[in-house]
Amino acid sequence: MPTVAAWLVARPLNAVLALALTLSLMPLGFLSGAVLVYLIVAAGPRSAAIAAGFAAALLLTLAAIMGMPLESRLAAIAMVWLPAALLGFVLGASGSLTMALQMSSIVAVLGVVAFTVVVGDPVAWWTPLLADLIEQWSQSGGPQAVRQAEAIRPHIGQMAEYATPWLAFFFWASSALMLILGHALYRHGSQAAGSLGRFVDLDFGRVIAGATALASLVAFAVGMVWLKGVAFVLFAVFSLQGIALLHWLHAEGRVPVLLVVAAYAAIVVLPLIMVAALAVLGYIDAWFSLRRRRESAS
């Protein structure tokens, strides 16, 4: 990784090629966002913006030559590079990975609120859309797809209720992954990397933990769907703190690397269960500072 980090800032052309190539490797386009985050904090926002501009021009030119729709390429550029650029700028300006991730979680919550304001009733907005998607799936598939669609249809209302927070959490997690990987590149490629903090020290804090508890209590007491979505996103982001705690335990020699690898494998196989389990772990750590307690005990 130090070699990659040094190569990216060795020449401007290297940065342009890296941004363009990694964005073309869908669904691994998040690597392009990580490169952009690294360039912002290592080379500065101006240099990163110039490299991104040339990379975008290269991608659009190649798309035009190959007859690909420019709209889809522009959408991919915006979806990956805009959040990466925002988080990279916050990371560089604040000098804190924790603060950048805290701010990103707040933006995710504001996204849920903004979507609710725009559409009015998220459940009513999602229900026909999900029904159409399930119908298309049943018609395009075989008998098994039809049976699965029939089993899902009775639960469309529940799916519609949590579609917005799940989508918000997905975009937040993707953006957080780009930020963390870009931060890792910087830590391995810069002698002053410690100034940006360490991922293993990530702590969303008791303020966000308290907001999560308050939103959850009010939402389930009064039955406000949008507030349930806010509480869901706030709680889910603590799954990242749970992952940070696992990495800290491994760094301290308290758990083997196989356990960390198994946790990541389980996230792929059982994402819902693992997000919930890691969020519980991270939420407990936010309140009781498990890492500092263990350090004090040592």
Descriptive overview:
This protein has helices spanning 2-10, 12-24, 30-43, 45-65, 70-94, 97-119, 122-140, 143-152, 156-189, 205-222, 225-236, 238-251, 257-269, 271-288, 290-297. The chain is an all-alpha fold and 298 residues long.
Distance between the termini: 32 Å
Structure annotation, total helices:
15
Question: What class, by secondary structure content?
Answer: mainly alpha
Percentage beta strand: under 5%
Main beta-sheet annotation? none
Radius of gyration: 21 Å
Would you report the number of β strands? 0
Global outline: globular
- Overall number of domains: 1
- State the low-pLDDT regions, or none: none
Strand-and-helix sequence, N→C?
HHHHHHHHHHHHHHH
Provide mean pLDDT, rounded: 91
How much helix, percentage-wise, in residues?
A: over 70%
In short:
The protein has helices at 2-10, 12-24, 30-43, 45-65, 70-94, 97-119, 122-140, 143-152, 156-189, 205-222, 225-236, 238-251, 257-269, 271-288, 290-297.
Features:
single chain; 298 residues; mainly alpha; 15 helices; 84% helix
Lay out the secondary structure:
Layout: H1 2-10, H2 12-24, H3 30-43, H4 45-65, H5 70-94, H6 97-119, H7 122-140, H8 143-152, H9 156-189, H10 205-222, H11 225-236, H12 238-251, H13 257-269, H14 271-288, H15 290-297
Helix pairs in contact: 1-2, 1-9, 2-3, 2-4, 3-4, 3-5, 3-9, 4-5, 5-6, 5-9, 6-9, 6-11, 7-8, 7-9, 9-11, 10-11, 12-14, 13-14
